[in-house]
Amino acid sequence: MKRSRYGTAYVILVLLVLALLAVNVCAGSVSIPFSEVMKILGGNQADAVFTDIVLQIRFPRALAAAILGGGLALSGYLLQTFFHNPIAGPFILGISSGAKLVVALVMVAALGRAVQVSSLAMILAAFAGAMIAMGFVLVMSRVMEQMSMLIVSGVMIGYICTAITDFIVTFADDAEIVNLHNWSKGSFSGISWDNVLVMSAVIFLTTFCVFLMSKPISAYQMGESYARNMGLNVQLFRVVLVLLSSILSACVTAFAGPVSFVGIAVPHLVKSLFGTAKPIWMIPGCFLGGAAFCLLCDLLARVLFAPTELSISTVTAIFGAPVVIFIMIRRKKERG
Amino acid sequence: MSEMNYLYTEGLSVGYHGVPLIRNIALGLKRGEILTLIGPNGAGKTTILKSLIRQLAPLEGAVFLDGREIHSMGGKELSRKLSVVLTDRVRPELMTCGDVVATGRYPYTGRFGVLTEEDRRIVHEAMELVHIQELSERDFLQTSDGQKQRVMLARAICQEPDLIVLDEPTSFLDMKYKLEFLSIIQNMSRTRNLSVIMSLHELDLAGRISDKIACVKGDRIDRFGTPEEIFSEGYVQELYRMTVGSYDERTGNLELDAVKGEPEVFVLSGNGSGTAVYRRLQREGRAFAAGILWENDLDYPSAKALAAEVVSVKPFCRIAEREMERAKELIEQCRQVICTMDNAGEFYQELQELIEYAKRQGK
Fold first, then answer.
1. H runs (alpha helix) in A30-171
2. 3-state SS assignment for residue A184
3. Does any CB of chain A come closer than 8 Å to the CB of residue B109?
4. Which of A175, A247, A266, A316 has its Cβ near the most Cβ atoms within 10 Å?
5. CA distance A94 to B61
6. Higher confidence at residue A174 or residue B45?
7. Which contacts of B224-227 are long-range, i.e. CB under 8 A and separated by 24 or more positions?
8. Burial zone of B171 (CB within 10 Å; 0-12 exposed, 13-18 middle, 19+ buried)
9. pLDDT at residue A334 greater than cutoff 70
10. Of A79, A78, A100, A97, which Cα lies nearest the Cα of A88?
C-alpha cells in the first residue's frame, strides 16, 4: 500500500511538471494558445512571432526553471542530510551567495576586458564560490555546537557575500550591468539553448550520481556512528556529499543567480507527499518537486505584474518561508 | 590462549585527541561469551567500546577480531562481523520501526539497498525475537525509549553479526524489559554462538549474565575475569569509590547509609522478616541493633549494612553464651525491642529466652 502511495505521488509530480511547462510556455505578456504551441514544437508552420517567443524565449526559460529548480531542491536535500537539519539549504547557508559573489567578480572582470564568459566557466566560478562558502560553513559547524547557530552563521555569510556582490555590481560600469543586476537578484530570464544544454548535462549527471548514493545516504540518516558500523566510509561520504550539493547549487547560481527557499521548502513538501524520507524515493521526488515549484514561481514572477517581472527569489520566498516557519514550529512541538 | 579468542586486544590504549584515558587494556573473549564492562560514570567504558568497534582509533596497541586487526578490514567486512547498539540518539525522519530494523541489512543488500524476500524474513525474525512485531508499522520517533532500545537491538541482530557491542543497553528499560532484553542476549549467545560485549550499570545483572567482567577504574582495567573472581568482598565499594551506603557482593544487596550512634531499638529478627523493619528504622533515622542472626540468614546482609551492631552466629552453629550475653546487654541498653519472628524451629529456645528477657525488662 506504501508503494501505491509512492506511485501516485510520482504521477502527481510528473503531471504537475508537464502541466506547468505547458502553462509557462503559453502564458505571458503575449498569450499563445496551447494548440499553437504544440504546432510550433511539432515543427509545423505557425505564426513567426509566436514561434520566436516559444522557441527562443519561453521554452528554454521553462526548461531551465524546471532543471535548475530540480537541482536546487536536490542540493537542499543533500545539505539537510549532511547537517541532519531540516532547514539547511544552499541559500540559507550562504552557499548560493558565495557562488554569486565569485560569478559576479568573474563577470565584471570579463566585461572589463570585453571577454565573453562561457557557461562552463560560469559554473566553475560559481562552484569555486560555493566551495569557499561551504568551507566557512564547515569550519563554523566544527566550532558551533548548536545547529541554530550554524544556520545563523550561514545567513551572515550570505549577507556578507551579497553585500560585496552589490558593491561590485554598483561600481562596475557597463551597459550589461543591468543584466548582471537582474541576475544577482535571481532570475530565469535570458536563458539560451546553449545554456540549457550545458545546465542539463551538469545537473542530470550530478543527479544521477546522487541517485547512485541513495543507499549510503539512507545509512547516514541513522547517524554517523551507526552509519560507520554499517560499513560506510563516513569521511569520504561527507566529502562526496558536499561536492555534489555544491555542484548543484553552483550550477543553479551560475545561470539563475541565488534562488531562495526552494532547497528547504521542496524537500519538506515532497517528504510530506511521499510520507517517507527514504532517499531512493526522495531523490527523484525532490527533483520533480523542485522543477514544479520553480516553474510555478517563475510563472507568477512573469505574469503577476506583467510586463514588470519580479525576481524569482521574491516569489519563492513567499511560498518557501512559511514552510520553514512551519517546520520549526513542528520540530519544537516534537521535542516537547 | 589469545589465539582462541574471537576478539582480543593487545596493549591497547584509548582516549581522545592523543591523550590516553585508559592504558594497557588486555581483554579477550571467545565465541558465545558475554563480556561486561563495569565501572563508575565517566570511567571510560564508552571510550573503550568505541575503540573496540573502530569508531575511535587506538592511541597504542590494537584490537583483533577473528584473528585480524580491525583497522585492516574493509567497512563491509567488519559490518558483517560486528553490530552495535549505542547510546546515540537516533532521529530518523518518517521511518517506521520496521524500517529502522531493516537498516541492519545494509551490509547485505545491493547497490540501491533494496530488500529481498530473504532480507524481509530475517528482519521479521529479528523483530519476533525481541517481541516488537506489533511496532513494525509504528513511527520510530513516536515510540518510548524502551521500545526504541529494543528496536535497535533487533536492528543489530538482523545485521547477523558474530559479535554485538552494546553501550548501556538497559538504561532506559523497566525491570521487565531489562530481564527480557538480557535474556534475549543470553539466548542469542547460547544458540547462535554470538559474542557480546556491553557496559552495564546494574552490577547484580552483570554478575548474573556475564561470562567475564572487566572493571574500569582510573586509567586501567583494574580487574578482568569471571564474576566470581571479580566480586570479592568490598571490591564494589572500592571500584565505585562509594562513600555512602553499601553493596553486598554475594547477594547484590544495596543499602543506604546506616544510622550511626547508640542503638535505641533492638530488632529480634531472622528468616527475612527483619529487613523491612531495618529499612523503616533507617528511614526514620533511628539507630538500631539486630540479632541474633545466623550469618546465612536472609536478614543478615541488610542487618550488617544498616544496624549499628549485629549480634551474629556462624552458619549452622548453635548460639553460644557469648552472643546471648551481648544480646541481653543490648536489650537492656535499648528503649524498645521489636520482635518480627514467630517461629525459628529448633534453635528457637534461645530466641524465646531473649523475648522473655525483654518482656521482663518491660520493653
1. 34-41, 48-52, 59-83, 95-112, 119-143, 147-171
2. helix
3. yes
4. A266
5. 44
6. B45
7. B224/B26, B224/B27
8. middle
9. no
10. A79
What cell numbers appear for B246 in the block? 553499601
Distance from CA of A46 to the nearest CA of B (A): 47
In terms of residue numbers, what domain contains A308? 2-335
B84, B89, B99 member nearest A229 (Cβ):
B84
Summarize pLDDT for A196-236 with one digit per residue, the tens.
999 999 999 999 999 999 999 999 999 889 999 998 998 89
Nearest CA in chain B to A219: B103
The amino acid that residue A264 corresponds to is I
Q: How far is CA B129 from CA A158, B124, B191, in A?
A: 51, 9, 12
Geometric angle at alpha carbon B311, from B305 and B315, rounded to 5° = 90
What local confidence, expressed as pLDDT, does residue B22 receive? Answer: 92
Nine-digit cell at B14? Answer: 584509548
Cell of A150: 550554524
A312 close to A188: Cβ distance less than 8 angstroms: yes
Q: Is the pLDDT of residue B2 over 50?
A: no
CA dihedral A261, A265, A267, A269 (to 10 degrees): -160
Cell 524498645 locates to B336
Task: Please state, as a whole number, how many other Cβ atoms lie within 10 Å of the Cβ of residue A272.
Answer: 12
Cross-chain Cβ contact A214/B112 below 8 Å: yes
Distance from CA of B94 to the nearest CA of A (A): 5
| CATH number assigned to the domain comprising residue A193 | 1.10.3470.10
Percent of chain B with pLDDT over 70: 97
Give the distance from residue B113's alpha carbon to the nearest chain A alpha carbon, in angstroms: 5
CA B226 → CA A29, A116, B5, B27, B207, distances in Å? 85, 78, 15, 12, 9
Task: Say which residue the cell 548548536 belongs to.
Answer: A146
Q: Which residues of B touch A285 (CB under 8 A)?
A: none
Q: Is the Cβ–Cβ distance between A264 and A76 less than 8 Å?
A: yes
Residue A9: which residues within 8 A CB-CB, separation 6 or more? A270, A273, A274, A285
- B173: cell is 528499560
Rounded distance between C-alpha atoms, residue A244 and residue A207, angstroms? 8
Out of B75, B93, B113, the one facing A231 most closely (by C-beta) is B75
Rounded to an integer, what distance in angstroms lies between the CA atom of residue A170 and that of residue B230? 77
CA distance B234 to B157: 37
Determine the residue type at A163: A
- Of the candidates B204, B214, B196, the one whose C-alpha atom is nearest the C-alpha of residue B178 is B204
Report, in angstroms and rounded to the nearest whole number, the Rg of chain A calculated over CA atoms.
20
Q: DSSP label at B90?
A: P
Cell numbers for A25: 510556455
Distance separating alpha carbons of residues A225 and A227, to the nearest angstrom: 5
Q: Does B111 lie at the interface with A, CB-CB under 8 angstroms? A: yes
Cell numbers of B155, please? 536492528
B29 φ, ψ (degrees, to nearest 5):
-150, 150
What pLDDT digit, counting tens, does each position of B117-134 carry?
999 999 999 999 888 999
Write the pLDDT tens digit of every residue in A256-290.
Answer: 888 888 999 999 999 989 988 889 999 999 999 99
Please report, as a single letter, which amino acid is at residue A331. Answer: R
The pLDDT score that the predictor gives to residue B110 is 86
Number of domains in chain A: 1
Three-class SS state of B222: strand
Give the sign of the dihedral formed by CA B91, CA B95, CA B96, CA B99. Answer: negative
Q: Which residue has the higher pLDDT, A172 or B360?
A: B360
Give the distance from residue A314's alpha carbon to the nearest chain B alpha carbon, in angstroms. 30
| Residue in A96, A32, A137, A51 with CA at minimum distance from that of residue A262 | A96
Residue A170 grid cell: 554598483
What does the pLDDT average to over B201-221? 90
